[in-house]
């Protein structure tokens, strides 16, 4: 499974619920946030000062084999 910086945060969490732990580990309180339906990964990382490439790598890394 791949993730991109223009993917919506809510779409990621809905289609790949195992990624929720990554959002929480990066201190992103996106779970249940109404903005998650509009925010892309890029938006969330920029607004929270998170390295986008590290976050995307963590998302990919949590995908079960």
Automatic annotation (TrEMBL):
Domain DUF1858: 6-55
Superkingdom, taxonomy of origin: Bacteria
InterPro entries: CHP03980_redox-disulphide (IPR023883), DUF1858 (IPR015077), ScdA-like_N_sf (IPR038062)
Pfam family, one: DUF1858
Gene3D superfamilies noted in UniProt: SP0561-like (1.10.3910.10)
PANTHER family: BSL7085 PROTEIN, DUF1858 DOMAIN-CONTAINING PROTEIN
Protein name in the entry: Hydrid cluster protein-associated redox disulfide domain protein
């Amino acid at each position: 499974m791949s993730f991109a910086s223009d993917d919506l945060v809510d779409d990621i969490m809905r289609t790949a619920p195992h990624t929720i732990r990554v959002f929480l580990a990066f201190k992103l309180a996106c779970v249940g946030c109404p903005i998650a339906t509009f925010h892309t990964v890029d938006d969330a990382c920029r607004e929270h000062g998170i390295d986008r490439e590290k976050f995307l790598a963590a998302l990919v890394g949590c995908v079960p084999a």
